[in-house]
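User: Fold this, then the next.

Assistant: Folding the first:
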Amino acid sequence: MEVCSIRLHRRTKSHLDRYREYRNESYDEVVLKLVGIADTCKTEPKLSREAVERIEKARQRISGGEFVAEDAARKRLGL
C-alpha cells in the first residue's frame, strides 16, 4: 500500500477525531468513511442519513462504555 502524508489544521484533526468510532481507528479509515457517506448522500440521501444516525448512536454507546472488547468478542465468536 502506498502511503502519503497530508497536513491538517489542528481544528480539522479535532473534527475528524469526533468521527472515530474506536480509539485505534486510523484517519484513513475515518476519511474513507466520510467520503463514503458523502457519495451515498448524492445517490441515496435517505440511506446516508441513516448511516450518519447509526454512526452517532455507535459513538454514544462507545462513550457510555457499552461495547465488547476485542478479546471478549473473539472469545464469544470462538476465534
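Now the next one, as you asked:
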Amino acid sequence: MNTQSITIDIPSDILLALNETETEFKKGIKITLAIRLFRLQKLTLGKAAQLCGLSRFEFEKILSENEVPISNLTIEDVMTDIQKLK
C-alpha cells in the first residue's frame, strides 16, 4: 500500500497538556479524521477504517462508542425497499 505523509505543526506543550505520546496523538487524529470523513460520506466504512489503520470491525466499534450510526438508511429508504420486494 502506498502512503503519503502530511506534516502538521503542533505546539509542543499540547502533547504535555494531553499527557499523550506523539504516537498516541497521531492515532487519535487519524481516528477523529476517519470518523469525520465517514460522517460526511466522503469515505466508505472500509476506507475510513483503512485511514486509521484498523479493521472494519474495530472501526465499527469506535463508531458505536461515539454514537455514530454505521448506516445512513432512513425509515423511508427501508419502507421503499419493502414495497419494491412485494
